[in-house]
Design a protein that fits this description.
This protein is mainly alpha-helical. The protein contains nine helices and five strands; from the N terminus they run αβααββααββαααα. The model has no long low-confidence stretch (mean pLDDT 94).
Length: 204
């Protein structure tokens, strides 16, 4: 059975999501996850509309309680150190995203230049390989995040196989989406807020 914290946090990060998409993200059997989401809805912690689930206010309150309890049991000093290391990789990814969208300040990347895109993808692979040891440490410190390495690897494999929409597609588990969600997790686990991180220039 999936722990309630994992499910509630996934719903918060996704906003409104189909059970099948959430099952794929968390690598959980679809019918099993649907039943667990139905249980959350029955408890008043989530609601389903038009085939998509989202948190209720009661669900957000319960999530806050669970996150507070989780932080109390974690080595927040180690996570803070990891987050500070993450910041440099975050800056690299932001630069890659900018290159993916713009060839220069006034020229959008229309993705007709295969060599240009291939160079950006190669740099994404290099970033991924360099970042993976830190990600492994983060998961060791916060085991609930153990689905992130699989999701990053899956998105990158799809990109390298030729489906470049998995670089930054906004709704699917693209590399950018998974990175954003991990960043949200780290912000919360270290007791920060996205508003403060954005003001400091560290939000993606």
């Amino acid at each position: 059975m999936t722990d309630q914290l994992t499910l509630l946090q996934a719903l918060r990060l996704k906003g409104r999501v189909r059970a099948s998409d959430l099952a794929e993200s968390l690598a959980i059997d679809g019918p099993v996850l649907t039943a667990e989401l139905d249980d959350l809805a029955a408890a008043g912690l989530a609601v389903e509309a038009n085939g998509r689930f989202k948190l209720t206010p009661a669900g957000r309150d319960r999530l806050s309680e669970l996150l507070d309890a989780e932080r109390a049991d974690l080595d927040t000093d180690a996570l803070t150190t990891a987050y500070e290391e993450f910041d440099s990789y975050n800056n690299e990814l932001k630069a890659l995203m900018a290159r993916w969208q713009l060839k220069d300040e006034s020229t959008p990347n229309d993705h007709t230049d295969a060599a240009y895109d291939a160079a950006v993808i190669a740099d994404l692979r290099a970033l991924h390989d360099a970042f993976t040891p830190l990600l492994t440490r983060i998961v060791g410190q916060a085991p609930r995040l153990d689905h992130y390495p699989i999701r990053f690897a899956s998105a990158l494999a799809k990109i390298e196989a030729g489906d470049t929409s998995w670089f930054a597609r906004p709704i699917a588990d693209s590399y950018h989406t998974v990175w954003f969600e991990l960043h949200e997790e780290l912000i919360g686990l270290t007791g920060r807020t996205r508003a403060a991180e954005a003001a400091a220039g560290r939000a993606l």
